[in-house]
TrEMBL record, chains A, B, C, D:
Domain HD/PDEase: 54-185
One matching Pfam family: HD
Protein's name according to its UniProt entry: HD domain-containing protein
Record-linked Gene3D superfamilies: Hypothetical protein af1432 (1.10.3210.10)
PANTHER family: DEOXYNUCLEOSIDE TRIPHOSPHATE TRIPHOSPHOHYDROLASE (PTHR11373), DEOXYNUCLEOSIDE TRIPHOSPHATE TRIPHOSPHOHYDROLASE SAMHD1 (PTHR11373:SF4)
Organism: Paenibacillus lutimineralis
GO molecular function, one term: dGTPase activity
One BP term from GO: dGTP catabolic process
Residue ranges of coiled coil: none
Length: 429, 429, 429, 429
């Protein structure tokens, strides 16, 4: 049963000034333990090791996504747009608020190490025996599943899915603005107010009035810069690599029957893949960091070293290479092996375009990934047809190979490496 | 031995735009494990439970204090002020950078629970067997002790002590700006550039050119507002109370010989007061949060409940009272007792002026706590002599009693309380 | 007849981001020649000679006041407050937009020189044969008079008067924010969003919910600082003095029958006090500045000198005096006279508290000048009863005497002045 | 003779916070009547008719350019770069401060109407009988000519010319930031601090350290957006067209011997091309606006109408066309003629790429217009070689035809136009 709060509640937010909560359901959702857990998951994972301001949590981001969605919907309602299904407002707001509920600690690294997907966990939490689900059910027995449908992108009303997840959605707008604010860079200063005013519900999706084209151009440029300056920053990548290696090593040890001095719940269930929703909800970044602190004292030297690297920020160094073929990689690995290094851990190759972030590429995929402009004649055009600047960046396939390695260790054996290999690792100085 | 970096290094900072590092010593200090630990200590303790943006760490704040100090000194040097002892620059910079090194997790609450002082720990780290000390010793064997002297406020050059710790120091300027930025309030927008330009080294202390009076007025008003809006916010106070109660309960249990399922190093040494510097450096907020997560499963119900409250943010409610006498308190305690509540834990009285934060009060203390204005005739005057606005706020003794209590529990027994007691706890609704 | 615009129009505004126009009447009013004239009147008169960014016009300020009023009303309507008379919205919006319509060039100085009042002119324009009036009449024959009633403060609905003109009105909020933005100072950063959310229509006036007290405190401190830092800045005062002297001299010459080489319409009607509304509407700052440029070539040396001073920014210097009695003034005047200076023009005494700006003083005047807080028990309390900080500043009667004089001229005759007089003018160096 | 000021002076600036003046020469230059005149010339001409905040003057911009140059030089000096000729600092600072001295009112339009060039006037003022010249001569008899040499780009030290005028110079950085600030758009938020830190004097020119590439990319994108969003805004173009037509008509009338009721000095000398430096210095925007106000009453109807349009902002409407050939233009002109309109004034064709603003195009011109990146191996590379994003925008030749016309007049005769012509002018509705 839907109820408005007697009096609107607000959260002070540095990005949107105030986040306004008007519905009792939203207020209750925010106060569930599952949503509060997002306070203990950083929005940008290990980026705080590169940009010390980037300590902000998924809790703030989720509130921000909710707030932007609220503003969009309230504008749709004020303008009385025919194509907006008014009764779907609450589903959209809940999905916006809860879309990141399933994120675990340092998501990207952990997901890679344990082959999990945060969207799945979001749905499991929405539909499991949780406080969130029982709050959602106040709106009707099928309401949790409706919200999960939006997350799964199979909800019957495609416009709601499109509102919550599209190349110009509240999620992306909030993270650009928020990540720029907390890192302190100024790439993310998009004119959100203008974009919001230009959005139109139109035949089952959200499109942009064509006079908003320049604001969208600017938004896409911001995204581009944020990806290459912040999200793909090599120092951040280096810390993610260490993180992944720690998990890889810990899992190996666990599978080898190593007796951990420190392995509180729910870590065992993570390692042996028996996690329940209740287990998962106990995972947070405090636990992961504490494990790393304690694992420095484990008998396994490699695990200890990796944990120290992460905790004390003694990350791997990197060299950038314009190109890199498989043979060269094999040669390096062989040379490392010969010199007593362990190429499984002492060498990582990274090519940042294959990361789980999506740089906008209009031709790459289906229409739901496109930004469409609506003109006065009610014609729809994909933005890169109209905008030179979008067209010019939309094919860009930047990206270079980065080799990551423990500088301290490599320096010791550098003379034992073949000259042409050694050169690669010296170039940086 | 002092060396400049071949090339200046910078940290991107949302508050000061860039933090500039020019000296090899500063760079090395930042990279010690003791300084990196500050990344795991929040600047504002539990304030993030009130202002979700306030996740920033003491690491960023320490860099900020260093940066402001660097700018002040570089200006003193450019202007060639006779009263500034140029050779003390590096001591001042190191003390500025390291002044918070001894802060533990949720400092204020933990310090109260275990009677510790973070300044002492800062000195112990500076002088103990640490990376920081060995970096400092590159400047000379007595250099660590010089820096510790500035922290202890007994350094031979009082102007250095005054620069690092005074009512208008880099520490205060950074935290006002930074805490305002991350919480998102706009009280903290002081005109730092103007204040910096007005500072003058003068006869062993830092004074302010009198034409800077208005900027100082504005700074003091910002401080005033920040204390009452942010630092003394009742919701934050409530979370600090829970925190203190958790530690109090855990210590009680420990002393009673309770067998903790989860009590990794260095927690035992915290409880039995045998902490070494090495133990202390393992304390961080990740560990404390993880302990709270795990303690929810301890057999002691009270500890579990308190931990759940903190983790799930089910804090104590509060009522504000203009006055409160000891008899009333005793009556409430008795009534609580009678109704089956535990007044030791279910009732806390707080009067926010006796907190370890200093609101500026010029007449309260010695001259080193005063802000002095220097006029063209080289006369020094204490600012409240000259400024109406400072005079008018300097005696203000705001503050009200707050009663904190578990609303859920009290509501159950409310009818068992004497009417006039019950009324106190109902008033809020 | 009221009509909404088919599509909302916006103005890009640096202070409010966007100014939204939704009504056809507002749009038409903005496009009248009388409103466009406000583009040629600076918001802060001669302040641009002190703060070079302060070039902004009354046009922008008027749009800003309209926008804030629009937001307040739209919030009143959303919340459905019983005490807000919905049908008065358009009167309030028009009065907000047009409240400064009668401002002339460099208003304060010109008003003093020619004893005019801009509120009168606003009403004359609203009710005269003007485009504005004919637009307003689309809403009904008595609509122009309704709007004028709000300006005259005798409109039948006191809440509308109170909304448009009170110590916490849209006018003041806009000018604090706007003047701070364009001068570049940071005193004016009030939390407008929070204040707006706290406003309540209540029994014929606008009051503030008591939980907004701190935001109001901060607003009053901002006002205080803006008045003393910006509006009363001695350099700005100096330029206003020159301006007033130019008009005084030109009027004297006109009255003496001097033949001006340059005196286009409507200047003669200004001098002989026969201005019609049509004349008045031709007055703008471009004309005044052009007159000053041309008058430098008039045969009257004094007028020429004063105009050059204004144009080339060779303003009068000033000395500040804690006290000044009439006898001293007379002595200075006599000494000036004796030394060949003209005390009518070469000496001006200024005591900035008697300026046509109102610093908030709650006890000074009637209840309509008070800020009232509304608590949960629907009690109204004047803010200084509740707030220590407001009480502490509300009696402040700062202000010092300033003597303004042409430094170049005084320096020449300084040795001819009696020693104790000469000293006054030397002190500054 | 060079002297430092006893005490640094500052200007409060919204863009750079403070502008610092340390040299007596700079202080004196700012106080000359020629420099003060820049207060009466708007930085963005008629843009204030589109963006109401854009009232800022060339005075503020000139201070800003000076300040950025001062920061660059002071950094070059601190870092002791071998390729920076220290003794040229003062020439560079003066040239930076004075580079816009020759701008007249609404420069671009007036320059087009009267075939003048502001750079010429800058040099004439520097070298003529002016206060500026006499201040500059304090540095040596040939100093004015040195400064003029930098403006003329033939100064013996090319690095000084390059510092003051290049695709990444202080002029461009200031106007992007300043115009963005005053219009209120957020395209101009470039990371100036980072760019400044990356600049290097190198073999007679200023280059950029290659790690600054992304900041430069962002700067170029900002420029791109500012040109198309602000500088080429069709409403601004429309007002410039009216302005040009007014001058064109007035000149025609003057040449036909029309007796102007209002034509004060120095307007006649403007019309008959006999302007001296002294005449030119009397030209400002106040005079131009006053002339327009007065000319509304001239007997020539066309002049009156155009002036009213400008003053009351009844600008020409426009239609955008993807392409336009000469024949179509001729047909429109003929049709207008036939319908009684005057195509000389009632029709203007505009193609914004041929405006006197330079969008960055690396291949278009010589090396001095290129931005060069310097890598660790001291290789220089033109930025578009390295940056995909710069390469992708560098060839962009956006731009569409715009037809400007008096909508009110065209609407009256629209039925008399051939159908396919009429359609062009109707399309907009």
């Amino acid at each position: 049963m839907y109820r408005q709060l007697r009096e609107e509640k607000v959260f002070k937010d540095p990005v949107h000034n105030y986040v306004h909560v008007q519905d009792e359901i939203i207020w209750s959702l925010i106060n569930t333990s599952e949503f509060q857990r997002l306070r203990r998951i950083r929005q940008l994972g290990t980026s705080y090791l590169t940009f010390h301001g980037a300590e902000h949590s998924r809790f703030s981001h989720s509130l921000g996504v909710y707030e932007i969605t609220r503003r969009i919907i309230s504008q749709f309602e004020r303008a009385n747009y025919a194509d907006w299904p008014r009764e779907e407002g609450m589903v959209a707001l809940c999905a916006a608020l809860l879309h990141d509920l399933g994120h675990g600690p340092f998501s990207h690294s952990v997901e890679q190490a344990f082959q999990m997907h945060h969207e799945d966990w979001t749905c499991r939490i929405l539909l499991g025996d949780t406080e969130v689900r029982s709050v959602l059910r106040r709106m009707g027995d099928d309401f949790p599943d409706k919200v999960a449908g939006v997350i799964r992108k199979d909800y019957k009303q495609p416009i709601v899915v499109n509102l919550v997840s599209s190349p110009l959605d509240a999620d992306r707008m909030d993270y650009l603005l928020r990540d720029a604010y907390f890192t302190g860079v100024n790439y993310g200063t998009i004119d959100m107010d203008r974009i919001l005013r230009m959005l139109r519900p139109y035949k089952g999706r959200i499109v942009v009035k064509d006079s908003g084209m320049h604001a969208v151009e600017d938004y896409l440029m911001s995204r581009y810069q944020m990806y290459w300056q912040i999200y793909f920053h090599p120092v951040t990548r280096s810390s993610e690599i260490i993180l992944r290696q720690i998990f890889k090593r810990a899992k190996e040890l666990y599978e080898q029957g190593h007796h951990f001095k420190f392995l509180p719940e729910p870590l065992p269930s993570l390692f042996n893949r028996t996690m329940t929703v209740q287990d998962y909800l106990q995972l947070d970044e405090a636990l992961v960091q504490t494990a790393f602190m304690q694992w420095r004292k484990e008998t396994d030297e490699l695990l200890g070293e990796l944990c120290s690297r992460f905790i004390d920020r003694k990350l791997y160094k990197y060299v950038e290479m314009d190109s890199l073929d498989i043979e060269t990689i094999e040669e390096i690995r062989a040379a490392f092996n010969k010199a007593g290094l362990n190429p499984e851990y002492d060498l990582e190759i990274d090519f940042p375009t294959d990361l789980p972030y999506d740089v906008f590429r209009p031709d790459g995929e289906g229409r739901e990934k496109q930004i469409l402009l609506l003109d006065r004649q009610e014609r729809l055009r994909e933005i890169s047809e109209v905008s030179d600047i979008v067209r010019s960046i939309s094919g860009l396939q930047r990206g270079k190979f980065h080799l990551y390695f423990p500088d301290d260790k490599v320096r010791i054996i550098i003379d034992e490496l073949p000259h042409e290999i050694a050169e690669i690792f010296v170039e940086q100085h």
